[in-house]
Amino acid sequence: MVESLDTAESNFRPLVVIELAKGTKEETIEWLTKRIVDKKANGGAQLLIKPLVTENGVENIYLVGASHLRLLLGAEAVGLVKECSDNSMRSFTYSSRKTFKHFADDNHNFLTMAECQYIIKHELENLRAKNEKMIPGYPQAKLYPGKSIVRRLLTSGILVQIFPLHDREELKKLSHSWYGRVKVGYQPLDNIRCYFGETIALYFGFLEYFTFALIPMAVIGIPYYVFAWEDYDKYVMFATFNLLWSTVILEVWKRICAILTYRWGTLLMKRQFEEPRPGFHGVLGINPVTGREEPVYSSIKRQLRIYLVSLPFVCLCLYFSLYVMMIYFDLEQWALDYHQENESNFSSLMLYVPSIIYAVVIEVMNRIYRYAAEFLTSWENHRLESSYQNHLILKVLVFNFLNCFASLFYIAFVLFDMKLLRQSLATLLITSQILNQFAESLLPYWLQKRYNRRMKKHTCSKKTDMDLSLAEQVTMEKEMGTYLGTFDDYLELFLQFGYVSLFSCVYPLAAVFAVLNNITEIYSDALKMCRVYKRPFAEPTANIGVWQLAFETMSVISVVTNCILIGMSPQVDALFPDSKMDLVLTVALVEHLLLAIKFIMAFVIPDKPRDIQMKLAKLEFESLEALKQQVRAFQMQLHFPLSHH
Amino acid sequence: MVESLDTAESNFRPLVVIELAKGTKEETIEWLTKRIVDKKANGGAQLLIKPLVTENGVENIYLVGASHLRLLLGAEAVGLVKECSDNSMRSFTYSSRKTFKHFADDNHNFLTMAECQYIIKHELENLRAKNEKMIPGYPQAKLYPGKSIVRRLLTSGILVQIFPLHDREELKKLSHSWYGRVKVGYQPLDNIRCYFGETIALYFGFLEYFTFALIPMAVIGIPYYVFAWEDYDKYVMFATFNLLWSTVILEVWKRICAILTYRWGTLLMKRQFEEPRPGFHGVLGINPVTGREEPVYSSIKRQLRIYLVSLPFVCLCLYFSLYVMMIYFDLEQWALDYHQENESNFSSLMLYVPSIIYAVVIEVMNRIYRYAAEFLTSWENHRLESSYQNHLILKVLVFNFLNCFASLFYIAFVLFDMKLLRQSLATLLITSQILNQFAESLLPYWLQKRYNRRMKKHTCSKKTDMDLSLAEQVTMEKEMGTYLGTFDDYLELFLQFGYVSLFSCVYPLAAVFAVLNNITEIYSDALKMCRVYKRPFAEPTANIGVWQLAFETMSVISVVTNCILIGMSPQVDALFPDSKMDLVLTVALVEHLLLAIKFIMAFVIPDKPRDIQMKLAKLEFESLEALKQQVRAFQMQLHFPLSHH
After folding, report:
1. Would you say residue B143 lies in a domain?
2. pTM summary value
3. Is residue B545 part of a domain?
4. Which residue intervals define the domain Anoctamin transmembrane in the entry (chains A, B) (predicted)?
5. Does B636 reside within a domain?
6. Which one of B122, B573, B603, B645 makes the best mutation probe of the A interface by having the most chain A beta carbons within 10 Å?
7. Ranges A231-235, B230-234, B294-298, B309-313, most confident
8. Of A81, A132, A310, B451, which one has the greatest count of Cβ atoms within 10 A?
9. Is residue A121 included in any domain, yes or no?
10. Which domain holds residue A102?
11. Shortest CB distance from B40 goes to which of A560, A632, A645?
């Protein structure tokens, strides 16, 4: 039975590609392949591996696959959660496989391809050194018992990359239903999840949700532009709606996120123990948690690096950014003077130049700072990938926030110039959106397209994408760019949320632009994922993590800014003709009330819908019952008599 | 081996007392005792039970105990966490019992008496009906499969009470080391925990910690009184220190709480599945989570009761409380007028009368409202005890907050009378402290003492407490009051925290009074626990729950009030001679900065100390490893060969 499941070479399905450096020593390759195919009992990964033979001969590229049985056992090891026949979600185990929906021993589609690739990645990364002191053939690439072999190969440059293969047919189906036709409707999130994994599907889910959530704001915002409403009471209404609405949408997102990730099984997935990230280095020592030998780096040293180097550097950058902003305002003043001196079409065009230059400079500064932040955070030597990511996100967020919004704050609360604020906001928002769309998707797509055309000309074939041989497919995909994660995509949304909410009572049209941008963003991001980049490995996730906090913080800040803006308006001013004091006190009172309502709302709206809560409770109850049953069975075994009165 | 552990009647140790109603039918008693002693396999609790024989004959009082082995198995069932020989904390299981510190088959002190009593309570409460349709002898006391027998007996009045027995010797030791001698030092928290359980020990831990944390404030506050400092810059400094300090102490408490509960094992204890609370009623139906038959009550009906009845009622009470407050201010004004008309010793004494009357009225209103809140919350028919408690706490907190602080807010922010504020604050604080100490401990102690003396006279014995026979001890203890939980004690601390922090820049001496009160509070509460009340059942807990949130909310509110008070002071006023506007804006800016610092501090300070984090990570790692090992072992069993290239 079990043997019959085993895959002969005939139905070897390539899932993951391993590219070794050119000129990698024969003994290294032999050792690595042996470790990969070796039995679990001998410390191997028990996977299948095949060299890729192209027209140019063997190129140090290997295809990794696994038998169906191996993948099922791997699914158990990574803790995959699947749907059972009774519609409940449960951790998959091989012994209970028959209870799962759509499971059949001959149904090789029970696990999606993305899941299979995730399992293989997990197994490869968990291939650990036994007694090897170094990678055979490379004495400088040290190993110690328990060190992940693949990570050492990556850091020592022997392994160029590992990436999962695209499935041309699936991809075509997916891209057709996703962005292939112009239609009004939801994205095929479940299919995206099956193909790209949960992290990416959740990003697209959030993008879609956020766009829908902005529509009410956009709809209410349009008449302000059309009828040129300048009544402040209308602006006040709009801002108040905006503030409460932004709280509601963030709370409701948590519920939708729970629904999605429950359906995908990641809400129930147990957190795996985190291994040190690949770049982590230190003196060999004993990890107090695992008791294993691994590099150890003192937490105090790291704290010193963070507070004595990174923090001052970030502050310096923030100062520099403010300095650049002041230059921008000088330029702006100069342009205004110029316009007033010689009124012409050219001079009125010149009025927009400083803003555009500033927007471009901001983009450039952001990108440079980003490299510095990555370098610094990597130098801080965090042990865990999650801690690395959090420190990186924090650094980048603070800088981006200042860069994008400092000038607007300055205009609003120092210059008190609402007209300039509206104009700057519009310019910044639109410029940055266009730049982003261009730099992020269209440019890489065009480059990729050109490269492919050259490649095809080179191999002088007239085949379409679908007819490519495996070798050609691999050669093409390995040259594609690597998708670096959802960070930049979320950051863009975060800044957009800032533009929309921070000064919403001054420029109600921002929501309209945001909605328009997001609709094209969905298409360009989808294009990027399907056509521009290598397929990324699926990453299970249960929520959007630190971004939820970032968006919530932004919505708290926007309460403050909007209240001040409304208080500063001449119309509201006119309501308190006798005493400015009363005005300020009223504004402060309203602000505190709004903040209190926000916190109470966040507290009262449950994070998970009732039916998900019930399902989770049911699972917890069952596991507790099972435990109790065990205890009871054990007690019965003992079978001891009790005397009683 | 196992049999030798079994307890013969000779070493029956009474742990828990069950008091049945006078005239309970013979068949009911027989059925109940049978169920209690019956084997687990037959659905019994497998405990030991003995009727208490007093001088007056059998009185329907039963003593429950259990064999050592039974208790150990019970400890596993309730998920008790104990310390291992290698100093790590682990869930106790009978099969791994040898690895635990101080475990020996003949060491009957491995489990503390409080733990044994908790286990027995748990086992009794989990004694469930099988096929009984009613309690034998009481056709109106309906049962259904799975219904807790003890809870039905309690709600139908057949079972008067269940309570754990005091251990006279232990109690004497404990009370001696706790409050028996006047000493400077910490309370014996670990001993308190062993005797009274974690919830009560944690309350005393918090009380002690809070008192220590107030000392710096008190020390800084004293010179303000001694030197009659009236400089506002000093008040500003004091208030700023106070605000940051209150954030720090609340964050640090979480860490200390983690240290304590890790040591006590409750931090690691798995949450048990919550059964419906005893008072919960409804139509018999199927619980969607458990699939068991139990009363079902529609959540919508409950929401309607909450929002249409409870909420309006609470609002009405709040309005009434404000109305009473206005009367108080009229009285106050009248007293002032009277004093100004006829200046005499009597009239100056009269000045204090309204405040004192008001404080007394507040206390009375609080107590009446408390009963109403309990009735309403019980009528809302919450399924879970925790949800009942949360709704009750919320109702009581809001009312108490308004009752205690509304008059102060009125004086501060409507009358702008700082002198009156200081005087009212002092009067309210001191009066309520004295009233509380009296009503809570001294009065019950005195009543108890008198009752005991009468009892002893009645049995005309000259024995001391230590020599009491078991029968006499039980008869005495069953008449003692029941401790209703830590709610009132925490509430008192919460209100005290409000007095100290909300107006700290006006009355720095509040902290001094709070410290003095808390020192006596420790003694009077200890006295109350040891001498006045029945021994309560131990309740495992990992934190102070909703009170942490309540204290944090209070500290946020106090930032707002203090900033306003400082802004209103004439000295700060004098700093901005030209523009009141600048003053208000500066105050608002400082307030927002302080709030931001508070939130960042709460975010940056880790909730658990590093070593506890490491220990928890280690445990998590071990359990994940164990799981992996299981998967691996299973894979090896399959032993399938994999072909490779």
Report:
1. yes
2. 0.86
3. no
4. 192-618
5. no
6. B645
7. B309-313
8. A81
9. yes
10. 16-165
11. A632
